[in-house]
Amino acid sequence: MELPASFVDYTRSLLGEEEYEKLAVALQQEPPVSIRFNNEKWKVQDEGLSAVHSPFDRVPWSSEGVYLDERLTFTFDPLFHAGCFYVQEASSMFVEQALRQYIKEPAIMLDLCAAPGGKSTHARSVLPEGSLLVANEVIRNRSQVLAENLAKWGHPDVVVTNNDPADFSALPSFFDVILTDVPCSGEGMFRKDPVAIEEWTPENVEICWQRQRRIIADIWPCLKPGGILIYSTCTFNTKEDEENVRWIQQEFGAELLPLEVREEWNITGNLLKDESTGTVHLEGIPVYHFFPHKTKGEGFFLAVLRKPCIETDENETKKAWETINSQKSVISKSTIARAAKKKGKHAGKGVPSVAKELMDVARSWVRDIGNYSLLTDAETVYAFPNARLEELEALRQNLKVIQSGVSVGEVKGRDLVPAHALALCPVLLRDGAFAVEDISYEQAIAYLRKEAIVLPAAVARGFVLLTYRGVPLGFVKNIGNRANNLYPQEWRIRSGYLPEELRIL
To answer: How much is the pTM?
Structure first.
């Protein structure tokens, strides 16, 4: 690859001649392939993560991340579609360390720039039980991809939104944790993404660091006093990294927090030179760079900052919540099954409530139903944790919510059809709610292509949960001579062929 001359000059001056040459060599090499397992999904088939890990090298800073010897044919791996693992760049898994070291109690977390969902799915696996994750993406079509990946991951305490950072101003002091993996110049992804090289210019770097500051300025009031901001980029330069961190400190009085890291991880510290001496103070400034010639992964930068705990902020937070609560009606068991108003052509027309008998059916499908409320949105029934209903209402009042909780079923005529998301949520799907049929690899691929499936004659009629190697894939409606495929049309495998050489887990 041919790197931009301005990038070469700047990065050489940043790292020094010797380190830059090592980086340049690394950028010509094939990037490693890494995935992160969904331990909840493997528990479904009584295979712990340790059993799966044995053939792979562990990502040392991630409890569930592994390196692969070669890239798999992910598109044709049913376990990938079932949400058993996520393909994620290894360096970015370092976010786990910030969450594990500083978030010990249930928290409300915002992943502000979340698509396609690598860090969101990771965060949801790491956060303490009882936490709520809000995953946001400003671009509409990317927010749909985000919602799909989170649905496959299978956690009910997640809300997906499609908003500009400035829109969150309606929720002051709302979040305990905010992850800002801000849009950047993408220097750290050069060897994986040739487009990043083509688009890189010094001017774009200038645009990026200014945009990043605007994003932080917009979202900072939404962080609770004492709350944690995780700032990250996939770039090398100090303008988007250290200089922006220093700006956050100076502008908002934020405290820069250290992380415990191991020497063998080969993480690089501060690269910002002292303006008075022209030297770099590597010690005492806790920021974390990943360089591909030193760590097994791509370029990544992370810093953790704490918002000041100002005494007056407590009153401000209380007032903010009073304002939010005054804008909504009190949530009670009698109102949680209300229907929303349809948008578009049905705007302004009320949608009838889902029939009681269908709501009873939905309840029979949900494990530990006492911990969840069944809500309705048009003709969809979804489950959401009781403990976070107040926060959900505040989010719905002020933001564009794409997805909340887990879809349980959709009304079709007189029937409630089980939602695909329910099949992929082991914590929610009640054992014995549906007949189960384990299918072969060939059948699984046909199902994921949304092709017709023929089940053995002994399989019960009606809705059947298909599994592959014991892991739920989704539902069909068995009518005897065939089974109607209920896999989401927009998620289907579009390729009509199988590679000659399959590499799957």
So the answer is: 0.90
